Hints:
By secondary structure, the chain is α/β, with parallel strands linked by helices. The protein has one domain: Aldolase class I (TIM Barrel, Alpha-Beta Barrel), CATH 3.20.20.70. Helices cover 35% and strands 19% of the residues. It contains nine helices and eight strands. Helix 4 (99-108) links the parallel strand 4 and strand 5 (112-117). Helix 1 (18-27) packs across helix 2 (50-59) and helix 7 runs parallel beside helix 9. The chain is globular, with a radius of gyration of 16 Å. 48% of the residues are buried. Bound molecules: D-xylitol-5-phosphate and zinc ion (ZN). Zinc ion binds at residues 9, 34, 36, 68, 174, 194.
Amino acid sequence: MPSTIIAPSVLASDFGQLAAECKRMIKGGAHWLHMDVMDGHFVPNITLGAPVLACVSKGVPGIFMDCHMMVSQPEKWVDEIADAGGSLYSFHIEATSDPVSLIHSIHARNMKAGVAISPDTPSTAISDEVGELTDMLIVMTVYPGRGGQKFIERCVPKVSELRARFPDKDIEVDGGVGPKTIDACAQAGSNVIVAGTAIFGANEPEQVIATLRSVVDA
Ligand code: DX5
Ligand code: ZN
């Protein structure tokens, strides 16, 4: 299985101190930072976009930005996110009719590509072709749109289904993940762990990061 990666979701951070918050997480043992981009259309909320990501990438040299694009037209933002320093561009399979071309255009801009599925989307919505082409598969364990929601247990079997089909790919879980829900995610085969509230809401985030990592590594 690919190596364990812990990616705190900055949605739960103090946006007024975003670069400092990212540095604090990296110092605390995080590998990636998960950046939730919302457009007010694919999901009801608006969060941050390319101009903010560009500031973070400038302020935190070497940062790996895992950009989760909860947007209606994911084709539209590939160049802007690449120019802003995005490292990985994840789009929702529900938001595009041509995932293969989109993955090629993401790779052409030297970013990794990720494909996300919302709670009501079956794992079979990711075709073999798309799964093989992409670098990461994301199983949403909450409805996309906001942080701090309750983990949806019934999404976990989709992680196992995707792990069986794609043994060498990164598989990310996103939403409501923390020390109480990590066991199920790890056993199902996810290796990239997003956690917002559980990490930023803790008194000692580095301990939460270490706990999550040790469960997945076990
Ligand atoms: C939900 C986002 C998630 C979320 C994670 O729309 O994609 O990344 O912010 O935050 P927690 O861990 O608080 O559920
Ligand atoms: Zn996310």
